[in-house]
Every structure is written in structure tokens, then in C-alpha cells.
Amino acid sequence: MELAQAADKPQSVTPAPAGPDAVASKAQQPNPFAQKSQSHTVPAPDGAPATRREARQSFLTQEQVEEPATQGWRGTVTRLGIRMTPSEAERAERADVQAVSQHWPGPRTIAIVNGKGGAGKTPTTVLLSAIFARYGGAGVLAWDNNQTRGTLGWRTEQGPHETTLLELLPESEKLLGTGAQSADLAHFVHHQTRDRFDVLRSKPMELASAQRVDAADVDAIHRVASKYYRLIFIDSGNDESDPMWRRMIDHTDQLVVATTTRDDHAEAGALLLEALAQQNDKAHALAQNAVAVVTQADSKATAADVKRVADGYQTLARDVATIPFDPAMVDGILRYDALRPSTQRAWLAAGAAVARGL
């Protein structure tokens, strides 16, 4: 019955409003009644069609012309004079290069962590620093935030001095003063001449009791680093209860878990992420946004071993990068140019994964 009554009632039909194309079309039609002698403009009421200037599309566009291929057979054909589009692999590499070449507003701090020694924290610190410095330019620091025999100084070039963070600490207020200059830091850091970043060393020859650094010291060093560097990569120690380690987390913007294919290394990194996720909101966010870097440190490890660990971190971290075995990473000073091309590409991908979290 109600349906029948509703059908008998006359329906009032409201015409649909004209679309923007129709409004713009009407606005552009000349008014035959307008007086040509009038030169003043009547202000348009709110909601009125846009003026010609507002409606006009800019002649400037953001469209970018893709550069031709430079790699593989496509690059060879391009060099012969026939322009070829890049492959998907080359496009992906260009995207990764663009990611690590960015400059962000304000400094960013990246902490490389794992509760087990030998898990690859130092190589990860060095080679991520190299990636961002080589592609993005100066202003990258690798800092050995370690109470007990940090090895960052052993895996990087030494400058014309033996200065460490212990010598920087008494000068921190001076370096933060208005009269300080960036060149003053050369007294305390060790510049990497090929990979273009600086290293702030700990003193591995001393016992931990002789170089104890507390949370306030970490704050002071971080203030100096943040004043002079845009990216700060921190190579951390193994004691997650150390005030030095915990204060590092307070300053961290992006967390990187370094691990090898060894079960104890992988488990230690996973437990660390799970523990951080149960702490305060910032620690939880760092764990959720973490990047895991799985390095095939053992030449006997198989692709299946790498995949097993990487798959295990997929549910723990935002992104997972894998690094193949490379003899140049085993001992001695680490240099990006000494790596195999496939290893260089893997570190570039790892750097891009980190950059996406900054």
C-alpha cells in the first residue's frame, strides 16, 4: 500500500548541475549585450566559474623524457645510433639510484643492529654509507657507537691521525659553537677518499672500562654529527641493555637489521625486532619499518639458505635485501669499487630500501 501511494505522488525533479566542462564553455561564450566601452571588472561571487587566468592550463609540464638504454644489448644498439628504451632491470636500477641520491630536510640517523657479533653490522654500515655518499654526495658519517672493540676503524681507511670519538667528546661544545667550521671536524673523523664518507671511530685497542661512553655522551656526539652531516649511519654494539645502545635507538630514524645466513645471527636479529615492537611507540614504529639485510657471508651457503632467512624476515621487516657472497667483503678495508658488479647492485638495492623509509 505504501509503495502504491508513493508511486501516485508527483516526484519533483531537480535538474543535475552542469559539469565543469559545461560551465567553462558558457563562461567562454561572448555576451552580446555587454558594452565594449566598459573596462572595469566586477568581482566574481563565491562559487562562480574560474577566470580565464585560473582556468588556463600551464604551458609548463612535468613530463620527463626517458633516457635511452645504456646497458646490455639495448645499450649497444643505442650507441650504434638507434635509440632503444631501457629494459625493466635498467629502469629498476635507475629508480634505486634516484632513491639514494635524494637529500632530505634535516639530518637522518640510521642504526645498524644485531645482538650477535659477526652478523655483518660493520660491512653493512660501511657499504650503505658508501652508497649514499657516492650517489647523493657529501655529508655522510659512519659512527662506531661501540663500548667494546668496535671494528669500524679496522674496515675503513685511516686519516692522517688516530683520533677517535674519545677525543671528540671534550671538544663537542666548541664544535657546536657559532665559530666552529665544518673543516674543524677533520681533526676527529677519517675521510674515505674513494667512497666519500667520513668515519668516527671508537678505540678498539682500549678495554671497554677505559673508554666508557654513557647516554649523555651519545647525545653530545649526535648533536655534533647532526650539525655537520645529513646522514648518520651508526654501527652498534652487541649489548642491547647498554645505555649507549638504548640512547642510539632514541635518536634513530631508520633501523637496519644486519644478519648472515647463520641461524644464531638470524634468530638474534628477529628477537631484537620482536623485543623493540613490545616497547614504546617509537621503538614499535622502528621495528615495523625496519629493513633486514641478509648477507651470504659464508661461501658455502646456498641460495636456498639465503632465501630461507630472507623469507623469515618478510613478516618482521618492511623490506628485505639480500647480498651475495663476495671475497672483497671477507677481510681488510672495505671499498665499494672492489666489489663484484652483482654485489654492487645488491647494495644499491639495499640502500634504496633504506631510503624509502627516510
From TrEMBL:
It comes from the Bacteria. Pfam families: AAA_31. InterPro entries: AAA_dom, P-loop_NTPase, ParA/MinD_ATPase. Residues 108-236 form the AAA domain. Residues 26-41 have a biased composition (Polar residues). Transmembrane segments: none annotated. Residues 1-53 are annotated as: Disordered. SUPFAM superfamilies: P-loop containing nucleoside triphosphate hydrolases. One of its GO terms (molecular function) is ATP binding. One of its GO terms (biological process) is negative regulation of cell division. Coiled coil: none annotated. One of its GO terms (cellular component) is cytosol. PANTHER family: ESX-1 SECRETION-ASSOCIATED PROTEIN ESPI, SEPTUM SITE-DETERMINING PROTEIN MIND HOMOLOG, CHLOROPLASTIC-RELATED. This is ATPase.
